[in-house]
Amino acid sequence: MPPLTCLTTPHSAHLLAEQLTIGPAGMRDWHSISVLVARNFPLVREASLGHWLCHQLPYFRVARLGGHQVVGILHAQPRQDTGTLWINLLAVEEHLRHHGIAHHLVAHAESVCRDWQCQRIGLQCATTNVAALHLYACHGYGLLSESTTELGVRVVGHVKILPATDAPHSCPRPTVRLDARPLRRLYRLCYVLGYRHRSPVPR
């Protein structure tokens, strides 16, 4: 089998160098996150996403162009019992794929993983998502297992061990902490009263 190559176009190099930033999500990003989830994760329900947005907002990262337009999302959750950072969601706007944005989101997730002092990073990917399988193979993720979810979707588990000295110099190491409980309750109130009824994610 020929070696995998992870290609970006000359335009993508300029795009990433000049315009792309990755940082924490806020309440103003709820709709952009919900749209990307609705388009890319049809099995995710509004109740699950609503819980993540209100109670785990610091676990979200958004990729922006020019500091404004959200073009990609990442939700990565630490599992302290196993020392694993688990990627729940990673998606890029369809018309901006193949420009290296997903590669930067994966690298950012690994930076967060080291910040949490987790030893490994894991995820599941549908067997039908060929582009994502190729992306994770490019980043050195090994195949862990293959299984079928309760909804009948065939998925492949991936894992990557992260040596402590293997941090990419180009990625900052953000501090990731959950917001205080009163703030999470405020998020929930704003979500239920002001956003849930117009969320594009099905209930």
Tertiary shape: globular
Radius of gyration: 17 Å
Q: How large is the share of residues in beta strands? A: 25-35%
Structural class designation: alpha+beta
Count of individual helical segments: 6
Order of helices and strands: HEHHEEEHEHEEH
Biggest sheet details: 7 strands, mixed
Question: Would you tell me the overall average pLDDT?
Answer: 85
Lateral arrangement of strands in the main beta sheet: 1-2-3-4-5-7-6
Label this structure with key terms.
globular, alpha+beta, 203 residues, disordered N terminus, 33% helix, 7-stranded mixed sheet
What can you see in these coordinates?
There is one protein chain. This protein has a 7-stranded mixed β-sheet with strand order 1-2-3-4-5-7-6, with helices on both faces. A hairpin with a 5-residue loop joins strand 6 (142-148) and strand 7. The model is unreliable at 1-5 (pLDDT under 50). The chain has 203 residues and is α+β, with helices and mostly antiparallel strands. It has 6 helices and 7 strands. Helix content is 33%, strand content 26%. Helix 3 crosses helix 6. The longest helix has 15 residues, at 101-115.
Note the topology.
Elements: H1 10-18, E1 20-24, H2 30-40, H3 46-55, E2 60-65, E3 69-79, E4 84-92, H4 101-115, E5 120-126, H5 130-138, E6 142-148, E7 154-161, H6 181-194
Parallel strand pairs: 4-5
Antiparallel strand pairs: 1-2, 2-3, 3-4, 5-7, 6-7
Helix pairs in contact: 3-6
